[in-house]
Design brief:
single chain; about 325 residues; alpha+beta; Fructose-1,6-Bisphosphatase, Chain A, domain 1; D-Maltodextrin-Binding Protein, domain 2; 8-stranded mixed beta sheet; 5-stranded mixed beta sheet; 8 helices; 15 strands; about 25% strand; binds 1,6-di-O-phosphono-alpha-D-fructofuranose
Length: about 325
């Protein structure tokens, strides 16, 4: 049995980086515990606050954000944090080396119906810059030192990369340790599964309309095979399915809010998921360039996302 600590040792992950990741994992175990208690812990429902994106925050969004924030601020290697639920970056320790970026609870609309949610994280170097300044965080995804998610489903899983492939760990409920359950995951290059919110179809650009139209044509269309569709409404679960059995996930630009390039956030969702997908042999694009090559202009910037099985994403990009 190998725990996440054994893998850090095997990969010679630098000790300070291990401390930063472990701080995220410590918070995630508490979040997993609260989710398991469900309604009994009084966490369901809305906290009657809006986050910076104008969405109503669920109680557990707020609690998860605060848990992560407190634990990370107390971790001496962390210089600062940026959260999907915080308007501004939060400075932590002056001598810290890392910036920890996170979506505390992705897919939070699933909480009330007891469906999968997850914590997504990304770690960047602080390069000695002022962690109270947004500009310090505006680094492309290629600068990430580690990325991953903790998936709270029937079991609690950690899927993580430090740039040496993607490993999957399962939280042992008895020992509270993350145990390696799949080493070096790879994404199958072809697939017959796609994920997109079809209810937005009429708002998509023509290219996406055409591509999805061809997916729906199945074996009679020009792609020549039948596709199935899945939509969990939590990117963390969609990416996990893709890492397990392949697939293509899309959240493209649409005309509902034309000024915003899509719904998903570059730094909290796009970059960490892209690092995992690329490390597992898949592709991730905003439709023009690799998501990890996008240079952020704002911490809450949005990005169109097309990611997953390499050949399927390549086909989509031809459109
Ligand atoms: P929430 O965390 O607000 O539930 O949003 C989840 C998410 O950002 C992403 O995880 C999903 O893929 C996507 O939004 C679902 O969006 P739809 O509302 O279009 O289903």
């Amino acid at each position: 049995m190998q725990t996440v600590e054994h893998i850090f040792e095997k990969n010679q992950t630098p000790k300070p980086l291990v401390l930063a990741i472990n701080a995220v994992l410590e918070a995630s175990k508490e979040i997993a515990f609260l989710l398991q208690k469900g309604a009994m812990s009084g966490i369901l429902g809305s906290a009657e606050q809006e986050n910076v994106q104008g969405e109503t925050q669920k109680k557990l969004d707020v609690i998860s954000n605060d848990l992560l924030k407190d634990i990370l601020k107390a971790c001496p290697v962390v210089a600062g944090i940026a959260s999907e639920e915080e308007d501004l970056p939060v400075p932590a320790n002056k001598d810290g080396e890392f910036l920890v970026i996170f979506d505390p609870l992705d897919g939070s609309s699933n909480i009330d119906i007891n469906v999968t949610v997850g914590t997504i994280f990304s770690i960047l170097p602080s390069n000695g810059n002022d962690a109270s300044q947004e500009s310090t965080y505006l680094q492309s995804g290629r600068e990430q030192l580690a990325a991953g998610y903790v998936l709270y489903g029937p079991s609690t899983l950690l899927v993580m990369t430090t740039g040496q492939g993607v490993d999957v760990f399962t939280l042992d409920p008895e020992t509270q340790e993350f145990v390696l359950t799949e080493s070096q995951s790879t994404i199958t290059p072809t697939t017959q599964e796609f994920a997109i919110n079809m209810s937005n179809q009429r708002f998509w650009a023509e290219s996406i309309q055409n591509y999805v139209g061809d997916l729906l044509q199945g074996e009679e269309g020009k792609l020549g095979k039948r596709y199935n569709m899945r939509w969990v409404a939590a990117m963390v679960a969609e990416v996990h399915r893709i890492i397990n059995r392949g697939g293509i996930f899309m959240y493209p630009w649409d005309s509902r809010e034309p000024a915003k390039p899509g719904k998903l956030r570059l730094m909290y969702e796009g970059n960490p998921m892209s690092m995992l997908v690329e490390q597992a042999g898949g592709l991730s694009s905003n439709g023009k360039i690799a998501i990890m090559d996008v240079v952020p202009e704002h911490i809450h910037q949005r990005v169109p996302v097309i990611l997953g099985s390499k050949q399927e994403v390549e086909t989509a990009l031809k459109y």
